[in-house]
Write a structure and sequence with these properties.
Distance between the termini: 51 Å
Helix content: under 10%
Radius of gyration: 21 Å
Largest sheet: 8 strands, antiparallel
Strand content: 35-45%
Strand order of the largest sheet: 6-8-9-10-21-17-16-15
Number of helices: 3
Structural class: mainly beta
Number of strands: 21
Length: 341
Amino acid sequence: MRYLLISCLVVGSMLSVQAQSNQIRVTHDEAQKRVAVTVDGKPFTAYIYPGPAVLKKPVLYPILSAGGNFITRGWPLDPRPGERIDHPHHVGMWFNYGDVNGHDFWNNSIDVGPEHKGPFGTIVHTGVKSMKSGKGQGELVVTANWLDKDNKVMLQETTTFQFRAGTNNRIIDRITTLKAMDKDVVFKDNKEGMIALRLARQLEQPSTKAEVFTDAQGVATKVPVLNNAGVTGLYRTSEGVEGDAVWGTRAQWNKLTGTINNENVSVVLSDDPNNVGYPTYWHARGYGLFAANPLGPSVFTNGKAPAMNYTLGAGKSVTFHYKLLIQSGDLTDIALKQLIK
């Protein structure tokens, strides 16, 4: 009996270790136009590219915490009770911009209304270059084309996603290289960019009044006050700025804290010192838009800073690197700096 008890304890210990091995598996389902990323068989995220008839760009969707909770909004793909249903172009985690040679890549969606005049750009997936699975880490390399209104390629994109998993965290590095084709490409100063997430309702900041937000074309979107039950989000940047005040400020990182289904989480988006415009401006809103945009200084400062109008010469390339950290439990600034370095 004693031997059996010891054996059971040993086997149980081995199973526990195996259950927490943090094995990342990256699997491509071409028929579903989806690359799934799992940790020990449980969902982490997926790279989806259903095409312009569904989405006007590829995205990571959904994204889950180590505790198995969605940090991204479900609507419009998989609506969940109590969610906002504004901004249909806010899906999962994406990378695009509001004015690229006059084309709006940000606002484009299948539900775009007549108030948005365009012209619109579309990002189309062109291939999966490589995938790697492994213990605690995985990688996906994909390609895409940024098309103008006439479906001509303006930019070729190569993106590497690096996925990491710990017992209490999930990390995604997005490293995107854009190459201009036969013409210069100008990213005119615009607030609509560049890497972004649309958050689950629980991670929004509690709303105190109705808001109206206007895009670069002067189109207004009303965001009403909703029931704040279970809404717990709060932004704070590396510069100590908190709440709605983070919008338009510059910082190395922005940390959003909140609680989902009794799981305390910190969602951190961080800039890289080698990026253009470092440290980035934050296009972060209390209603659930969490975005970093380094290319709109004149817009974010109401003209106090000179326009960047970043220009990528014909045949030239530029690389942007951003890190997303999702930490379960408390996350001190010291621990944060270690995880995002």
